[in-house]
Amino acid sequence: MQDIMIMASLLSFLNVTLLAILVPGGPIENRDFSKLKGIVFWGFNLLLILLGITSFIVCYLLLISHPNAIFITQIIAVLYFIVYMIDLAGIFPKSPTKMSKPLALFEVINASMAVFLFLFVTAIGHVGI
């Protein structure tokens, strides 16, 4: 039972790590977001930061088998998926710089990992572990 929760925690950690490597100006994300101003820029960044911090907290909650860990992880997985899908669809954030092929590939992989995380913890919840 504890082994499965450790695996869920590691999957959550992998998701936050995959998000972190996509930081603008980093090795993969090279688009220019200077046109995003004020509340839009800071709101989006705050969402991503809170998503990352909450993911680390969820890693711990999964390790201690907190009663709400599965539900919170499901929410986080859905948020990861939404973030990647709106970016891949070109909805937000908009940039004059086109998304590179490696970035698009990483976002598809990351979105897939978010789906996998959701399905994994949902299965745990249904089994009752």
UniProtKB/TrEMBL annotation:
Q: Which domain of life is it from?
A: Bacteria
Q: Where is the DUF8051 domain?
A: 9-122
**A Pfam match:** DUF8051
**TM regions (residue ranges):** 6-27, 39-63, 69-92, 104-127
Q: What UniProt keywords are attached to this protein's entry?
A: Membrane, Transmembrane, Transmembrane helix
- Sorted alphabetically, which InterPro entries does this protein's record hold? DUF8051 (IPR058364)
In Swiss-Prot or TrEMBL terms, this protein is called: DUF8051 domain-containing protein
